[in-house]
Design goal:
By secondary structure, this protein is mainly α. Helices cover 49% and strands 0% of the residues.
């Protein structure tokens, strides 16, 4: 519980540093990408399909968590956020 609280505090601090405002449009973009990822995962694995990559931004993920994740976020988690580091491969 203490670790979760620490992560939430760090996320809140990071989110307050020059993060653009979250939009429902970004949440919808991420949801569409998530639906496509789930559809690809449900396809038969034989023959092996070509590898796919899907780029998502911090803003899309965080907007999804804020506006659309709803019951997917565990009880007690308030204002979840995600921050990725590095570059896409």
């Amino acid at each position: 519980m203490v670790r979760l609280l620490a992560v939430a505090v760090i996320c809140a601090a990071v989110a307050s540093d020059a993060q653009p405002p979250l939009s429902k449009a970004d949440a919808t973009k991420f949801q569409a990408k998530l639906v496509q990822i789930e559809a690809n995962a449900a396809r038969p694995k034989k023959p092996k399909p070509p590898a796919r990559s899907t780029a998502v931004s911090d803003a899309e993920v965080n907007a999804y968590l804020k506006y659309l994740a709803g019951s997917q976020v565990p009880v007690g988690v308030v204002d979840p956020c995600s921050t990725a580091r590095g570059t896409a491969a």
